[in-house]
Amino acid sequence: MASPAGLRPALPPAIPGAAAVTACAAMAVSYVAVLYAPTVILRFPPPTSLRSFLHRRFACAAVASTASALATAALLRVWSLSNFADMLAVFGIRKDHLLQAVVIPLLLTSLVYAGSFINRLWLLASMRGGDGDEVGIGCTQRLVLWIQTALDDVMVWRNYVVAPFTEELVFRACMIPLLLCGGFKMSTIIFFSPVFFSLAHLNHLFELQQQGCNFVRSLLIVGVQLGYTVIFGWYAAFLFIRTGNLLSPIIAHIFCNMMGLPVFSSPRTKGVASVASLAGSICFFWLLFPVTSPELYNTRLDQCRCWHGFCNWK
């Protein structure tokens, strides 16, 4: 494969920057708005359980993601590409370099959670009760139980499948090629595109208030969520641009959802978690550019400022 998008610079036309930004804003709004379409527009009765509520939202997210992908394909005229694999590769959907795209971002992201790992291991050791074998058996039993219940747990599907795949498809695979084709610099896209991602979480403010949470508390909760989504959005956009593979931000998204907020300090570990967190963070930033070098994820790179040929489309 020649490049992540498998493209030659002269194929699809570039689009105006204003059109790219407008399209991204429309995708962000529609991704949230469609979640309320069943009850507000279609007048469906309210869901009677959490499972039916989330199943309805899964369907809405699939519709929004498909619409965004089709809109991106139309704006970039990807059907002018002769090879279907090249069309998919515009969105970072590729079958080459899969091992690198999964393992390296996963290991890189885990460095930020060094303090969290120490905290959990410390907690596990404190529960040992003097018999290491019992701990091993307990861990194994818990893992088996988690696997057994996961497939039937609608929240597992929400947090580890639907949200990572649909959000990364819309907010990275659709928006970033549009912005690259719109002439924006990579650094601008990395720091600017997460704004759309964060705005798509503002509906949580409305939902928290519906659940009886007061406005100030709801604002604080959503404020923390927005800050976290902005930081993660920077990282996810960076991964997508550097690797050209959609799997990289998806894997990072799933892992971060599993781990939650990183632990930077924990009284129970007597400072060990803090040291581990600091060391992990230093290693993360030290390795960030070397292990995401585009050469590791692509057989050949287009000779252009974005490496993937988007910025040269005319």
TrEMBL record:
Domain CAAX prenyl protease 2/Lysostaphin resistance protein A-like: start-end pairs: 155-259
Catalysis performed (reactions): Hydrolyzes the peptide bond -P2-(S-farnesyl or geranylgeranyl)C-P1'-P2'-P3'-COOH where P1' and P2' are amino acids with aliphatic sidechains and P3' is any C-terminal residue
UniProt key word Transport: no
Topology relative to the membrane: Multi-pass membrane protein
GO molecular-function terms, A-Z: metalloendopeptidase activity
UniProtKB keywords: Endoplasmic reticulum, Hydrolase, Membrane, Protease, Transmembrane, Transmembrane helix
Enzyme Commission number: 3.4.26.1
Annotated TM spans: 14-37, 58-78, 98-118, 178-199, 219-241, 246-265, 271-291
An example Gene Ontology CC term for this record: endoplasmic reticulum membrane
UniProt GO BP: CAAX-box protein processing
UniProt feature coiled coil, ranges: none
Highest rank taxon of the organism: Eukaryota
Compartment list: Endoplasmic reticulum membrane
Keyword Protease: yes
Top enzyme category: hydrolase
InterPro entries hit by this protein: Rce1, Rce1/LyrA-like_dom
Family: Belongs to the peptidase U48 family.
Full protein name: intramembrane prenyl-peptidase Rce1
Native source species: Panicum hallii
